[in-house]
Write a structure and sequence with these properties.
This protein is of the alpha/beta class. The protein has three domains: 3-270, Purple Acid Phosphatase, chain A, domain 2 (4-Layer Sandwich); 277-330; 343-391, no CATH class. Helices cover 29% and strands 23% of the residues. The chain contains ten helices and 17 strands. The protein has helices spanning 31-47, 67-82, 97-102, 143-146, 156-174, 284-289, 314-321, 343-349, 353-364, 372-391, and strands at 11-16, 24-25, 28-29, 52-56, 86-90, 111-114, 124-128, 131-137, 177-183, 217-221, 227-230, 233-235, 252-259, 262-270, 277-282, 300-305, 325-330. The strands form four sheets. A six-stranded mixed sheet has the order 6-5-4-1-13-14, covered by helices on one side. Strands 7-8-9-10-12-11 form a six-stranded mixed sheet, with helices on one face. α3 links the parallel β5 (86-90) and β6. α1 (31-47) packs parallel to α2 (67-82). The longest helix is centred in the C-terminal third of the chain and has 20 residues, at 372-391.
């Protein structure tokens, strides 16, 4: 630990979430990349004198992770503990609470895995020079599975409100500072197309920020980009980029400091990006030959080619230049069809068979109708059909 690591009195908490151990990126394993990033996070814990590390849900990407995923988790948790921190892990919607919780009984002292909603009001308490800090781990709460335990709950809003009510009741009896850890979709999250893939954005699934009143800090998980909903209510996001839509969002965690009277400071600690993510747009030939793209040849590439017509085997051709080209889509630069009219309206307006076929080609080829050569072939085919019908 550096001399500066303990220059501030109080407790230092590292808020991270959504590791998604085992997730693939367009069919490519991310385990090695994630291992490197988590090694950096562990080094930050040691260098900054972190007292407690929080992992706010979605530790794994699957309810049935492979053995290699368990190995990476165990290695990382041990590394964090060896770096001097206590570790508190909760389950998210991607985790199997039962499987993740099974590890709780075999983990070493100082590592706690909290997955049981029935015990969420029994905090993990860590002391510093100012007294106790109570950490309330709220696993992902599925309303349908909790109605027998908490009658009347129907939505995420309901279950989080009930859970935080239990937390506040317990905290009122204990006293001291507090941190709530939850995995949910809270109101105020920036609305972008890159929201975590399983989030439902309907009103019934939104948890108001007011649900987290009464605690000094709320460490949230579920959103893959960092977000500050209030000074003491934040998402840390995922440590890796798991989609091209996340490519512009920084990766890291929040370093939270609690003093004698509560929250005193929050600092962003950036994590490295193992491989850059870029989206390239232009004609396919330009993407394959333009020297200005040389700097991103080793990046993860999403290629959007704008040629008028689909090209043959674009992914293979692009991967010859960009070995990590993971996604290709076709988006013609210009659309000549009158978009104000529906396809059905255009079909009904067609006066001849040739116009009908041309309308279909425009529809499936983003506005590109029959070429002169195709029109000649189409005319010959239709003329031959008329001749055959006349003979029969």
């Amino acid at each position: 630990m550096s001399a500066a690591a303990r220059s501030v009195e109080g407790m230092r908490i590292l808020h991270t979430s959504d590791w998604h151990i085992g997730r693939t990126f367009h069919g490519n394993s991310t385990l090695d990349a994630l291992r490197g990033v988590l090694d950096t996070l562990t080094a930050q814990v040691r260098e900054r004198g972190v007292d407690v590390v929080i992992v706010a849900g979605d530790v794994f990407d699957s309810a049935t992770p492979a053995a290699a995923c368990y190995l990476l988790l165990s290695e990382t948790l041990r590394g964090l503990a060896d770096a001097g921190a206590q570790v508190i892990v909760t389950s998210g919607n991607h985790d199997s609470a039962a499987r993740l919780g099974f590890q709780a009984g075999v983990l070493r002292s100082g590592i706690r895995v909290l997955t049981d909603p029935a015990t969420l009001a029994a905090p993990v308490t860590v002391d510093d020079e100012h007294g106790p800090v109570h950490f309330y781990g709220i696993p992902f709460l599925e309303p349908a599975l909790l109605r027998h335990l908490w009658p009347g709950v129907r939505t995420q809003r309901d279950v989080l409100a009930h859970a935080m009510g239990l937390v506040r009741d317990d905290l009122a009896a204990r006293g001291g500072r507090s941190v709530a850890i939850a995995h949910c979709f809270a109101a105020g999250v920036e609305a972008t197309p890159q929201l975590e893939r399983d989030i439902q954005q309907g009103g019934l699934d939104v948890v108001p920020i007011s649900a987290f009143t009464g605690v000094d800090y709320a460490a949230l998980g579920h959103i893959h980009g960092r977000q500050t909903l209030a000074e003491n209510v934040r998402y840390a996001g995922a440590p890796l980029h798991y989609s091209f839509g996340e490519g512009s969002k920084p990766r890291g965690s929040w370093l939270v400091e609690l003093g004698a009277d509560g929250l005193t400071a929050v600092e962003w600690l950036a994590l490295p990006v193992p491989r850059q993510l870029v989206t390239l747009r232009g004609p396919l030939d330009e993407l394959l030959t333009d020297p200005s793209y040389a700097a991103v040849q080793d990046a993860w590439v999403c290629a959007v080619y704008t040629d008028a017509l689909p090209e043959r085997d674009p992914l293979r051709r692009l991967q010859e230049r960009y070995p990590h080209c993971a996604m290709v889509s076709h988006a013609p630069a210009g659309v000549r069809v009158d978009e104000r009219r529906s396809y059905l309206q255009r079909v009904r307006a067609a006066r001849t068979d040739a116009e009908l076929v041309d309308t279909f080609l425009q529809h499936v080829r983003q506005g590109e109708g029959a070429s002169e050569r195709e029109s000649d072939i189409l005319r010959d085919v239709l003329d031959e059909r008329i001749r055959v019908e006349a003979l029969t």
